[in-house]
Amino acid sequence: MPRSGEAARRRLKEAALELFLENGFDQTPVEAIAARAGVTERTFYRHFADKREMFFDGEGELRDVLVQAITEAPPGTKPLPALRAAFHASVPLFERNRPLTEPGARLIAATPALQERALAKRALLVEALTQALQARQVDPRVASLLAQVAMDTCAAATHRWMLDASLSLHEHIDHAFRELRLAAAALK
Amino acid sequence: MPRSGEAARRRLKEAALELFLENGFDQTPVEAIAARAGVTERTFYRHFADKREMFFDGEGELRDVLVQAITEAPPGTKPLPALRAAFHASVPLFERNRPLTEPGARLIAATPALQERALAKRALLVEALTQALQARQVDPRVASLLAQVAMDTCAAATHRWMLDASLSLHEHIDHAFRELRLAAAALK
DNA sequence: TTAGAACTGTCAGTGCCTGACGCTACATTC
DNA sequence: GAATGTAGCGTCAGGCACTGACAGTTCTAA
């Protein structure tokens, strides 16, 4: 009964999140996920590259938003301000996905294998940001460093946002970048 | 013939590096490593938690050096200068291990699974640096952010050092931190 | 000599992931 | 309306990473 294809993918994601929250990531075989979704284990691997990959589906969208914001920054904008603006531009995406992201974040934090993958995904975003900066004539090595640093700053901001929602994500981002500026001023 | 234990561990590391360089990481089963080292696959897993873990053995030493440098920084030293000094203190460690690190670095760069693990190891170092800063009364959230940023800066420096050894690692570190300071000054 | 610790081998087993093959539903074309 | 193509899926077989349990060996210390 080969139905829609997209439906099976959705069922698999739902089943996986349920089982992971019930029993933990390492304690749920892919076979169990597939069974709850009504498909075969083999079908699971036709929709997802591997067991960890399910958690990181929206990454492509986030990357596009960030890269576009960098690309469209006014000419003459310095790298770090451009990066900060890009993260501000991605805030709606975080806010929209928050109810879905939050339980997943706890699961990732509790599962080393997922933390590794999350870091790898972040590295891919950094790579995309680096290239977007290079397209703006930023020196490649400087671009790489600053993309990394800005990504960390944004990650710190979203982390604080999870713990303290009394401030908006915009405010957390600005706070974090301000701390970065003040701390860097103490160099040399 | 159960000899020393430490000898087997060393043989396993040598055999693994050879086979990985010959055939690639993904194309060399643990069984082959064990066979070349003259032991069983099971023994491999008694010496290393998993196949990827062999590459990251000196990490403990590096962590200790960094943490000690942070701890022993003169009172009143600001966080980023303290972190920069810590990385300078770890330079001899990098220089000593360079001939061993360099072929490994290319292998890591060519193997996604190893990149993930390398990022995870970096995250552990960042965590240790964060705690060392907190012990110096740095605000926990600021400590976390700056440890991350400093680690990225040092990583960028070592990466440049691999590509361009005409400058010392000390100089690359200073250059990278200077770029960070200049870029951050453009914020706000 | 004996007791114990450290190291290893052997065996069985789980789980992730892949390749190859064939089937079925659906869309397209003539 | 029949032929063709395509996309999604099931089934089977198999490789490889990793683990638990048990037994045998060497070396050391009492």
Structure description:
Two copies of one chain form a homodimer. Chain A has two domains: 6-54, Arc Repressor Mutant, subunit A; 56-185, Orthogonal Bundle (Tetracycline Repressor, domain 2), CATH 1.10.357.10. The longest helix of chain A is centred in the middle third of the chain and has 31 residues, at 79-109. The N and C termini of chain A lie far apart (68 Å). With 188 residues, chain A is an all-alpha fold. The model of chain A has no long low-confidence stretch (mean pLDDT 94). In chain A, 75% of the residues lie in helices and 0% in strands. Chain A is elongated and about 60 Å long. Chain A binds chain B through residues 78-81, 84, 112, 115-117, 119-120, 123, 141-142, 144-146, 148-149, 152-153, 155-156, 160, 176-181, 183-188, and chain B through 78-81, 84, 112, 115-117, 119-120, 123, 141-142, 144-146, 148-149, 152-153, 155-156, 160, 176-181, 183-188. Chain A binds a DNA duplex (30 and 30 nucleotides) through helix 3.
